[in-house]
Amino acid sequence: MCLKQPRCLAVLALCAFALPLCAEESPPNTLSPAEKQQGWKLLFDGKTLNGWRQYRASKSGKRWVVEDGCLKNPKGTGRPETGGGEILTAEQFTDFDFRFEWRIAPGGNSGVIYFVKERLGKPGPRMFNGDDGTGPVGYEYQLLDDQRHPDAQTASHRAGALYALIEPNAAKHLRPVGEFNESRILVQGKHVEHWLNGSRILEYELESPALMQLIAQSKYKSLPGFGTKFKTAVQIQDHGDEIWFRNLKILSLKP
Would you say 118 and 54 are in contact if contact means Cβ atoms under 8 Å apart? Predict the structure, then answer.
């Protein structure tokens, strides 16, 4: 029974007003009228792999499937050969706001990579054990189960990090495995930001002395041009673990 009728009526009125707003939310893998007007582009339609391409022709690159409205990489027997299972957008971008949702399996490891260098010719420098010098390399937004994967023992290898270079800050909030996380990569001019679940968790300046010093101390130090800006595809890594993506969309920005 409502003892304070005016307050109850106010709450009911608020609920009645809120319901239409919820009903107007866009379904997964679609753009709202406002997003369309702003110029956002959908990178995954929830039904096909249109707009995506394999990195080199390989059987493992064909493992990506569409399942329940998600772009999914099923669990393999191990990580494919270097670059074998990676997929990239057919289109390239320079300045952009890229947003996506992801969910990873327990103990999983993957990543979204930008400023991608495709080593398609002669094998380039080998940067780490297992690298044959032919796979795509770039700036990796790390996707990880921080609770179970051993990579999380290194701060710059945790979810949301600029892999092996910059760790996330204290604003980071990673949702439990089994839930979708909302991520964002913002590139404008030489300024870059990583966001996770509504919080900016790191930022850096391309070609800056601070970034170049980090690169010089990393496995990327022998890769020509690493640290500079150029037009790039967006790449999704196949690390051999199950991962799901949805609501991948991008807005091209002015420098």
Answer: no
Nearest Cα to Cα of residue 44 among 216, 250, 191, 202 = 250
CA pair distance 94, 113, nearest whole angstrom: 14
CA distance 167 to 26: 33
Tell me the domain boundaries of the chain. 32-252
pLDDT (tens digit per residue) in 176-204: 999 999 999 999 999 999 999 999 999 99
Residue 177 tokens, joined: 């495995």
| Listed residue (59, 192, 83) closest to 131, CA to CA | 83
Q: Using the structure block, give the residue that is written with the tokens 């866009």.
A: 26
- The answer to whether residues 176 and 152 touch, using CB atoms and an 8 Å cutoff, is no
Tell me which of 2.60.120.560, 3.40.50.720, 2.40.50.140, 2.60.40.10 is the CATH number of domain 32-252.
2.60.120.560
pTM of the model: 0.86
| Contact partners, residue 247, CB within 8 Å, separation at least 6 | 28, 29, 44, 99, 100, 101
Please give the Cα distance from 235 to 61 (Å, whole number): 12
Q: What is the pLDDT of residue 207?
A: 97
C-alpha dihedral (174, 66, 114, 95), degrees to nearest 10: -100
